Amino acid sequence: MLGTGGKQERVSRVGLTAADLVAARRREPAAVTRVYTAYAPGLFRFFLAAVGDRPTAEDLTGDVFKSAIEGLPRFRGPVEALGGWLFRMAHNDLSDFWRKQARSPSITPLDDLLDEAALAAGADDPEELAIQRIEYDRVLAALRQLSTAQREVLLLRMAAGLTGPEVAAIVGKTTGAVKALRQRGVASLARVLGVANDTSPPEPLSRSSDPVRLTSRVEEG
Amino acid sequence: MRRRNGPSDKLDAALDGRPVEVDDDLAPLIETAAKLRAALEAIELDPETVDRHLGMVLDGEAKVVALPTRPRPQASQWRRRVAAVALAAALTVLPAAVASASALPGQALFPVKLAVEQLRVTAVSWSSTREATWRIKIADNRLDEFDRLVQLNAADRIPPAIVRLIRAYVDAQQAVQDAVGDTGDPSQARALDVKLAAVTTGSAVALQRLQDKLDQGMLPASAHQAITDAIQQAPVTPGLVTGTPLPTPTTSGPTVTTATGPQTTQASTTTQAPTTTTQASTTTQAPTTTTVPPEVSDSPDQGGNDNSGQGSSGQPATTPP
After folding, report:
1. Would you tell me the crossing angle of helices B110-123 and A29-51 to the nearest 10 degrees?
2. Has the ipTM of the complex gone over 0.85?
């Protein structure tokens, strides 16, 4: 149990303090909101980039957040470890999600990654934003063509902002293995996106964002 | 022995933003990582989703903070009581997700409301026009809260509400200026000006209503000084509505006019509204009669002691006292 004395000055990478943690355990709205504001955007990016479906990613994010707040009294680590703890839950929930999907596959549309309504309503340059959106869409679709392990390692690092050792602890691999997965993941992504300067031709990628085609390529790396 | 400075280590360093020598092999990986980072950063939560998620956790936790009431003229007493009870009932029975949208300063869900607003601003920060639109909406929210507190005669909450209104208004005004500078579309600039002007007018009306209550003695005398001081710093003053300065309130506070000048330092003597005190010490008043509010420098402790401030940095001041 964290005390409220000498540890209060400890601040996590996302600006949470031990006092925030104590208050969030008591469900104080301001502290709960701070925890949410600190981690929910990363959780949502992690889930949406992984599953490609906005409502599903929103539900997964909400479930992890709710479980985390409810389970916070059982969290014994320092505030700096909260992110790793949360994303371990996220990792487990995502694994459960894929297992359920494998048992009862459903076709879910690849949702728009940016709010189209917002773009239409107030875009400064709709054409430029549309091109940008297609590019983002293309990158994330390519990401979903990586192996599950490569993708998760990349997302835990880049969407969640976790360190190598934290990622290694979550996925149950050594730090070296995580580095290698990340290296191979980025290299594969570069090839798919046509960025790699190797001699092999870039893998063609349809702009259609067909969810069946995208999710069917999930394989262990 | 671990091999250092291999491609993996270099990529790691590059991902961390540390300087690294980029060779031909590493360059495409760095470029790819940058593309992925940009794509991920474009993913944002909808504010409605944020509200729903927070409601899932906070639902049932929120407590309705009793708003102070005092005897009022007979004619409107029952109506005000019904309004107060209806408000409290609504906040009690509605899910937190919905209730936070109407939360008033001092209530449990008010920080949630501020956080949701801030997320909205962050989500649209890629467009100065959209950010300006949201900042105006936030100023309008502060105005609505202020107006409701006046209606409820919540005297102790009114001065901080005015301070929050000022800050939100200044943020909105700055955002509109930025947007007008950025956009080449005169119609967009005009639309923003019109929206901001609506808040300005609404502020004047609400402040006039408050002034009327002060004049009629409907608010505790002990609150007059703090309220008067806060009014001095508001975006507009009742004088703008009536065209003539209004009578000085029953306290020894300064006359409500548009040019208050150094009188704002009187707020430092009040114990009713410490946030107003801070505000006053950092305020530069507009020199002449104008709808332009005073420029308020951002002070991290201006949020008041009700855990509800929101600075121009956009961060909801949810730090507990």
Report:
1. 40
2. no
| Residue bearing tokens 């349809």 | A206
Chain B neighbors of A36, CB-CB under 8 A: 50, 53-54, 57, 115
Domain ranges of chain A: 6-215
Residue where the block lists tokens 């029975």: B93
Verify whether the Cβ–Cβ distance B15 to A180 is below 8 Å: no
Tens of pLDDT, residues B175-211 = 888 888 887 777 788 888 888 888 888 888 888 888 8
Residue ranges of alpha helices (H) inside chain B are 7-16, 27-41, 47-58, 74-93, 96-99, 110-123, 128-151, 158-182, 186-215, 221-232, 238-242, 274-281
Element (H, E) at B314: none
Chain B nearest-CA distance from A7, in A, is 17
Tokens 């949702």 sit at which residue? A111
Residues of A whose CB is below 8 A from B20 = none
Contact B213, B238 (CB under 8 A): no
For A126-133, the CB contacts below 8 A with 24+ separation are A132/B42, A133/B42
Q: Across the strands, what pairs with B284?
A: B295
